């Protein structure tokens, strides 16, 4: 039996840019067969010296746990010798159960999520997937089988979002998060097999989002409103249309930081920087509110967008993200702004994400061309 630290070579030092812990395992060889038994101990590279934990606030406790695990394995083997019974690896199963008692798969996700240093928006998404697992009672490591993953997939396909079936890209996203933590659990020695090795999930293609035309944007601008709350919603939506800010970034924006005609910030979802332009319609709205835009809860804001669109004669599925999509297509790409600049404005990590809007813009041009050709006839 030998103590092995960070067999997967993933550990970093505690103060590195992206710190990651390594797992302490026991390499046990019995009858020429070797197995790696996880100790449940995870430490940084600079917290491991020789064969023990060091420079760690709980070093004594962790080293004692490691010694007790080794002693327990030796005791089991010696008992087999004394009683004349044949050793099987299943005799060590109770050590695994003992080690993970009170630590289910969902508990494990809760514990390691902070170590991943996720952007705030990504963390919210991971927690949504975690709540999905809890809701459907997939909490234990033993439940992570191909059959269970297949069952979760069928549940996701039956789900509806805003009355429509969940799109394949969203379903793929859920599986991607679950698979991420399964892989991490395998690296930590908490699991042996990956159920996704026998279950493949199609990535799918994003649905085309409803986008507003310049005529529809002007209708929203010119609409006379006597309801104060609806006025605030309209103004916030116009700011989204002319800046490309997502709702969460709109609420987090510091408008006192405008430099000339640009605003710099960091996306709440991905942590990526963005630099967006402040056009005259936005300047006018900011002057009206003295650079302090109203704050409206997401659910109420979304709910109020529906009647706003109806009052403007817009028969489209308008959401908080419609403003961002409209900025990318109608406002920028539609007026000849290079896609590289649009990508920077939107705060995309990859220009491939921005190219989705370019495809939408091309389809809009084709649609208008077909309408014009019919008029010519």
Quick description:
This protein is mainly alpha-helical and 377 residues long. It has 14 helices and 9 strands.
Care to describe what's here?
With 377 residues, this protein is mainly alpha-helical. The protein contains 14 helices and 9 strands. The strands form 4 sheets. It has a 3-stranded antiparallel sheet with strand order 1-2-3. The chain has a two-stranded antiparallel ribbon with strand order 4-5. It has a two-stranded antiparallel ribbon with strand order 6-7. Helix 8 (228-243) crosses helix 11 (298-311) and helix 8 packs across helix 12 (322-332). The model is unreliable at 97-102 (pLDDT under 50).
Biggest sheet statistics: 3 strands, antiparallel
Order of helices and strands: EEEEEHHHHHEEHHHHEEHHHHH
Output the structural class: mainly alpha
Which shape, going by the Cα principal axes? elongated
- Poorly predicted runs: 97-102
Task: Give me the Rg, rounded.
Answer: 28 Å
Fraction in helix: 40-55%
